[in-house]
Amino acid sequence: MQILYYLAVLLFAGLIFSKLLAHLKLPDVTGYLIAGLIIGPSVLGILPEEALPALSLISQVALSLIAFSIGSEMKVSNLKKLGGGIILVTVCEAVGAFILVSTGLFLIFKTSLAFALVLGSIACATAPAATLLVIKQYRAKGDLVDVLLPVVALDDGIGIIVFGLASSIAKSLVSGSELHFLAMLINPLKDIFLAFLIGAVCGFIGAYILRFLTSAQNMLAFVLAAIFALSALCIYIEISSLLCMMIFGFVMGNFQRTTRRYHQLLDNVTPPIFIAFFVLSGADLKLDQLAAVGAIGAFYIVARVCGKALGSFISTRIVGYPKTVQKYLGLTLMPQAGVAIGLSMLAVKIIPEPQAGMIRTVILGATLVYELLGPLVAKFALAKAGCIQGPPVKRKEAEALAAKMPYNKPEKPVKEKY
Questions:
Q1: Spatial separation of the C-alpha atoms in residues 142 and 218, rounded to whole Å
Q2: Cα–Cα distance for residue pair 163/414, rounded to 1 Å
């Protein structure tokens, strides 16, 4: 009875606050997080502290679904068209944020290496929805837009791989066992290889079975069952379910001979799940911890943007992209939301308290800042690059156009277990 009540509260709160903040032209995810913060233990207490663990299944379900979605959004045909230059730029901007954040946390703030690696790896993730909306709203066209679109298409995939490797090393460090440099590399790579192998094999099997399922109900039931079963298997054998589910979705989306209608069916099922997830994430934000992580949080916000800007500048210069792309690409990659929130949940199972709670607080606080400032910074960068063409269109029209863009991935969180 109470669980059903709390589910209703999560959904109602998310819907109400997203509509209210839409009048301020803020993203829906910001409304969901603020809704959770207000109804959660830190403010009104409508959703009490003891209710949060009982609702953890929502996060598990949501994160399993998004891991699959991230992989299925990556198309082999698009990867071939992008070429090595775009891949290099994506790797450099993601790794640039990881290196700058991790190094600063470890050397300046004297945090543990495990903490620095995990938080630094989360810095790789980017939320493209806000930037894509600005592109369509202001009819942006040009070199910067041409490079930005494929970069945001690949960014989450690169971030997931970096997170998988960093988290495996962090887990070895937290265990306290005697470590050797070779073992620190071999063990994570072994886990990642196993996750890739299982995901690929299950993906081919799933794609084959889908050939014999024609009805929408059977197709949806099979895909959901496969996602949950594979995620449970990864948790049981303690390998990266995030990477495994991403490869599973990638193979399913690219190597089946039938329609990808199951993907559209999932999109019709998942919105309420993700509303509940984001509201629940906001409720988990501890206001009393903000002061404690204030300096680290401020450093994370600035260092992540600087790392992406630096990585983008160096890589685009190596590839030979125009100077406007070199100067402003990093600024358009500022927003961060769903994927980062999902990854931050994994800190509880990798990093011991109280540092795990600090990671959650830093990421949730940074998300609010990025979602508020991201569109403004993106507009500034596009204008400076000479990409804005004419007056803006209406917001609803821009949202509809942005949703149809070929590289627009759904803004959702991710699932992982190490």
A1: 44
A2: 11
Distance CA 301, CA 282 (A): 18
pLDDT at residue number 182 = 60
pLDDT tens digit string along 312-327? 999 989 988 888 888 8
Q: Cα(140)–Cα(120) distance, rounded to whole angstroms?
A: 31
Contact status, residue 280 vs residue 58, Cβ threshold 8 Å: yes
Residue 45's CB is within 10 A of a number of other CB atoms, namely 12
Could you count the other beta carbons within 10 Å of the beta carbon of residue 174?
17
Q: Quick one: which of 309, 312, 380, 366 has its CA closest to 336?
A: 366
Q: What is the CA radius of gyration of the chain?
A: 20
- 376 close to 38: Cβ distance less than 8 angstroms: no
DSSP designation for 393: P
pLDDT tens for 35-52 read 888 888 878 888 887 777
pLDDT 10s digits, 346-362: 777 788 777 777 888 88
**How many Å apart are CA 292 and CA 393, to the nearest integer?**
42
DSSP, collapsed to helix, strand or coil, labels residue 24 as coil
pLDDT tens digits along 326-335: 888 888 888 7
Which is more confidently placed, 210 or 241? 210
Q: HSE on the CB side for 259, CA within 13 Å?
A: 10
Beta strands in 152-274 (DSSP E): none
pTM score, whole prediction: 0.69
